[in-house]
Structure prediction request, 607 residues.
Amino acid sequence: MTSEMQATVPDRIREFVRSRFPLARNLDFSDEDSLLDAGVIDSLGILDLVGFLEETFGMQASDEDLNPENFDSIATLTRFVESKR
Amino acid sequence: MAYLLHHLLERAAKARPDHEAVVAGDRRLDYRGFLAAAETCAAVLCERGLQRRDRVAIFLDKSPEECAAIFGISRAGGVFVPVNALLRSKQVVHILNDCGVRFLITNAQRAGLLQESLHEIPSLEAVLLVDEGSEDARSLPNAFDVPRPAPDAAPCVGEDLAAILYTSGSTGHPKGVMLSHRNLLAGSRIVCEYLRIGLDERILSVLPFSFDVGLNQLITAVEKAATTILLTFRFGDEIVRAIREESATALAGVPTVWAVLAGAAPSFRKEKLETLRYFTNTGGPVPTETLSKIRQAQPHVDFVLMYGLTEAFRSTYLPPEQIDLRPTSMGKAIPETEIFLVGENGERCGPGDEGILVHRGPTVSLGYWNRPEDTARVLRPHPFIPAEQGGELVCYSGDKVRMDEEGYFFFVGRADAMIKSSGFRISPSEVEEVLMSSGVLAQAAVIGLPDPAIGERVHAICVVADGQETDAAALLAHCATELPQHMLPREVEFVPELPRSPNGKVDYKGLKAARVERVANP
Prediction:
């Protein structure tokens, strides 16, 4: 088993968020903190995040999934991904 | 007669006092209320001693207060400087210092972000807050809460400076483009004409007022006493909901907006947005695939492709009936305006030739604030009509463009290293400067690489200094403290050294060409 496969869902989401939105790294985010309220993720960032989730977790985000409830924090993103598996 | 910006608002309030002027969520302002708010703002500024030509910066989220401030500053005889709400304090301080602002209109939260930097702006006399705020020596909470009668009219003329819009070039820090009242009114009149903006227009405004197109939307709406709907969005469906709930008739976007609507706004494809009449795009080309998705989803809506640069406000538009014939064209000259191409040897280009786009007309700006040399590069004497025979200053865009037999223009590329990403102009040197301030690099070069969603993406090529260690994540984290998201490199690459051109300068063209090639043939 490679190390990449051992990484948990929140690990991989956290890693992506930190690399794509470096501000999150500086703000020392917890998994529960709102990325949207802090202005870490903009509209284009949502688009990239959807692409990342679909590609990484082999899931398909449906129409109703693209809402602030699912995209608010690392924790809500994790629950969203797990609900899709 | 309307010859100053606020005259448009006064006229609208007289003609349609009860008509909805500005909508922001649950808040609604009619023209009577809009004018009263602008006049209160003007009165407060005059009480504080504002003089004709004084600069007043506005650093606010899209809001009725921001709209009132724009017209209020004009009413007081001042010059408004809208600052993009996305900027970090470093850039805000640069702008406020560069044009020596006397007053800043903002809110408590944003004033808090700037708190530590305000002492770096010696010209700043007072911070006028639109809401409550902490008692800083220079800040005035609830500055505009008590309605005031309009002050005496300032003795301005149409040639007076009305606004300074900051924008980036290929080098250095953002420069302030000076627009006169006459420029703003001409821009509004011209756009109203070719978009056939009417009295019952309901314009959805998602672009910032620090961007000429966003500002122009507001002015055209006021010119027609029509309605502006303000929206800050992150999810595409928020745009769709606003169009539906507010019966919007028009939406102006940059490529990012269309990428979001085409790719992450499910309701956009599902329902016909009956009230919508037109979309406009500016700030870079829309990828063909995105454009066809948008048009398929809402086939009854006209899509108008436009091109312009802040220095000349707006240059070309593609009439919607041409979009199937020339989907990659920038269109033809806007009304009242002449657009021509000048070749390398200064000759006028014919059809098929490539040249620099030159703009002649009433929206040519007054140049860059306090930068005569930069201004002289962009605003030059008419190349074919001598000044003594009536030739005036025209605007050289720096964009390489081709024209077809029927006079339609096609974008070829930039003549310099400026990057255009998500509708923003980004100066490579500004990003490089922040990278270098990390203290661990010997050199940095920043280029734009083609990106289907955002036009170009920022790409950094770095040389680590001797004895230093770093990685991409650490550098990006450093940049994120100083730069807004749209200026951050999407990728950081490390090389042993940067290639030089024969004259000893970093070979940007070579760096870019090698990487574009690598993307095309991996």
Summary: Chain A is about 60% helix and 0% strand. The longest helix of chain A spans residues 43-57.
